[in-house]
Amino acid sequence: LEFPELPKHEATWQPIYMETMMGSGERITVAILATDINGCSVLKTLSETRLEGMFDEQASSMSSMIDIVIRAAQHWGQQQLSTPFAPPMSGVTLGEARAGLGDNIDDVMSQAAFLTSCFYRE
After folding, report:
1. Measured on CA atoms in the order 110, 111, 115, 118, is the torsion positive or negative?
2. Do 72 and 87 meet the contact criterion of CB atoms below 8 Å apart?
3. Does pLDDT of 80 surpass 80?
4. Nearest residue to 15 (alpha-carbon basis) of 76, 70, 63, 75
5. What pLDDT, on the 0 to 100 scale, is given for residue 81?
6. Which residue, 23, 75, 111, 119, shows the most beta carbons closer than 10 Å to its own?
7. For the segment 23-60, what is each residue's pLDDT rounded down to a tens digit?
């Protein structure tokens, strides 16, 4: 019996956490930042439907804030700077960097999202 070959695409990924209410300390995974030899990608882990279910009238505002965070993370990742990530607002943090294997960077981000967010659905 032979085991299947492992995927060959290597990427490093980090969850992006955001407080649900400023200053509350309660946080959720809102995105995954992944980098590989080709660059950087960011995956939003919360769909608009999930945001509406969780935040009701504030869903649109929350989605806009998440999009701002995603753009900032994308820009930071593309710069490949050794400086720490400076989030565009308080209550946002990057999780620990982890190594991942997949068919491509999207596969690695999807795996990471399933590992870090109970709200993520493809």
Report:
1. positive
2. yes
3. no
4. 70
5. 67
6. 111
7. 898 999 999 999 999 999 999 999 999 999 999 999 99
| Helical residues (DSSP H) of the chain, grouped into ranges | 48-55, 59-79, 105-116
Give the dihedral sign, CA 7/38/43/95. positive
**Cβ atoms of 57 and 97 closer than 8 Å:** no
pLDDT tens for each residue of 7-23: 899 999 999 999 998 88
Q: What is the DSSP string of 1-35?
A: --PPPPP-EEEEEEEEEEESSTTS--EEEEEEEEE
Structure tokens at 107: 């596969």
Q: How big is the chain, counted in residues?
A: 122
- Contact status, residue 17 vs residue 30, Cβ threshold 8 Å: yes
Phi, psi of 47 (to 5 degrees): -75, 165
**CA 108, CA 52: separation in Å to the nearest integer?**
27
